[in-house]
Amino acid sequence: MPDIHIHREHHLGFEEARKIGCSWAEKAEEKFAMDCTYEEGDTQDTLHFSRAGINGTLLVDAIQFEMKAELGFLLGAFKARIEAEIGEQLDALLNAPRPGARKAAPAKKKTPATAAAPKD
User: Fold this and answer.
1) Are the beta carbons of 39 and 21 closer than 8 angstroms?
2) Which residues does 61 contact at the CB level (< 8 Å), separation at least 6?
3) What are phi and psi of 18, to 5 degrees?
4) Considering only CA atoms, which of 31, 46, 11 is closest in space to residue 88?
5) Which end of the chain has the least Cβ crowding within 10 Å, N or C?
6) What are the φ and ψ backbone dihedral angles of 68, each rounded to 5 degrees?
7) CB burial readout 20-58, b (16+ within 10 A) else e
8) What is the DSSP letter of 100?
9) Distance, CA of 107 to CA of 100 (rounded, Å)
10) Under 8 Å between Cβ of 111 and 117
């Protein structure tokens, strides 16, 4: 049984999810000195990550991310903190603005002066 299990559903589709999986791998390599191997598949990608005291996988597909990791004895004492930080990082990547995504323009409000103004 894994020490850490994080599951996030999404509506991004497989290509966008793949980009997020790759971004998470880059951040894990930089911030935590993880060794990461990203394997692309037709319907699911698998990211293998490890370093002293932790090893695991991140499964990426069109509708979900699923991370499972096992912690060594020393890191086991920090399980809650590690799990929370990984979850926050994944959530930040999932909620980051996407290129090409546009925000809806705010609706214009009618002011009393423009609503009651006579038309010519």
Assistant:
1) no
2) 14, 17, 43, 44, 45
3) -60, -40
4) 31
5) C
6) -130, 135
7) bbbebbebbeeeeebebebeeeeebbebebeeeebbbbb
8) T
9) 21
10) no
Helices (H), 33-77: 73-76
Cβ contacts of 81 within 8 Å, gap of 6 or more: none
Least confident of 10-14, 27-31, 50-54, 116-120: 116-120
Tokens coding 43:
């319907």
H or E element at residue 98 = none
Per-residue pLDDT at 19: 94
Q: How far is CA 72 from the centre of its chain?
A: 24
Pairing of strands 44-51, 54-61: antiparallel
Averaged pLDDT score across all residues of the chain: 85
Is residue 54 within 8 A of residue 75, CB to CB? The reply is yes
Long-range Cβ pairs for the range 71-77 (8 Å, 24+): 71/3, 71/4, 76/3
pTM comes to 0.76
